[in-house]
Amino acid sequence: MDAPALSAFGGILSASETDNPGNRIKTVEYKSKQIYLRGFSVFVSLIDHLIKHTDLSSADNVILAGTSAGGIGALINGDFSRDKLSSVESLHVLLDGAMFPDQPSYTGEHIMANLLKKTFYFHNIKDSVSIKDCTSELKISEQWACLQPDYYNKHVYTPAFFIQSLHDTWFSAHALGVQCSSKGCKSSEIHIVDQSQQNFHSIFKNVMLSKGDGLFVSSCPFHWVLLKSTFYENLNINGTTVADAVGQWYFHRK
C-alpha cells in the first residue's frame, strides 16, 4: 500500500501552468532579491491595525487561537503578541489539532518532516523575529524543527492550551499514510497508529510539566474542534467538555 500524496493546492496556489497560467515555478525576484511569503509581516500589520482602530490594546484578556497549521503560527507568535500588547493584562495561546510530530509513515517516509522543511524554507522563516530564540540554537539544516509545537513549546513563556486527538484524522491519513477505519486496518497499520499514540503521550508529558499550560487530549478521531460548536460544547472526558477545560485553564478554575 502506497502512502497517499498530500492534497495538491489548487487555484492561485496551483503549480500547474494550465490551472494557474500566472504561476511561477522559479523563485520570484524583485530588484535582484528573492521574494518569500511573509506571513509574519502580515500578522504584525494586522495587530498594528487592530491597536490603532479598535480597543485591542486596552483589552483585559486576549486569546490567540489557531486550528491545525494555524495553531503553529499562534504558538510561534504568542510571545511576540504578548510583548506587542504589553498593556493587556492576560494573553494566552490556544492550539487546536496543531501537533505534527516527525514520525515515519506506513511506507517509512518522513512525510511530515519533509512538509515542514519545505514550509520553513519557502517562507524563509529562519529570519523571523518571533522564532529566533529557537532557530538561533540550531544548525541551519535543523531549524525547521522549530515549526513543531512539541519542540518549540519549550521556548514559549506565554501560557498555551493544547486540544489534540490521539488519533488525529488528518495526521493519520496524510502524515502516516493510514486511511483505514478502526475495523478495517491491517496489523501493520495498527502498529503505526499505536506508535503515533505513544508519541503523543510522550509529547504531552512534557507539556504537563509546565504550570501555565493546559491540555485536552481525546482518543476520539478528529482533527480539530474549535470551529465545530458541536464538538467544542459536547466532546467531553468524564463530563468535562472542551469548553469547560479551556475555561478552567484560562480563568484558573479548579
Automatic annotation (TrEMBL):
Recorded GO MF terms: palmitoleyl hydrolase activity
Keywords annotated in UniProt: Hydrolase
Top-rank taxon: Eukaryota
Keyword Hydrolase annotated: yes
E.C. numbers: 3.1.1.98
UniProt cross-references to Gene3D superfamilies, sorted A to Z: alpha/beta hydrolase (3.40.50.1820)
Enzyme class (EC, first level): hydrolase
InterPro entries (alphabetical): AB_hydrolase_fold (IPR029058), PAE/NOTUM (IPR004963)
Protein's name in the database: NOTUM
Pfam family, one: PAE
Similarity comment text for this entry: Belongs to the pectinacetylesterase family. Notum subfamily.
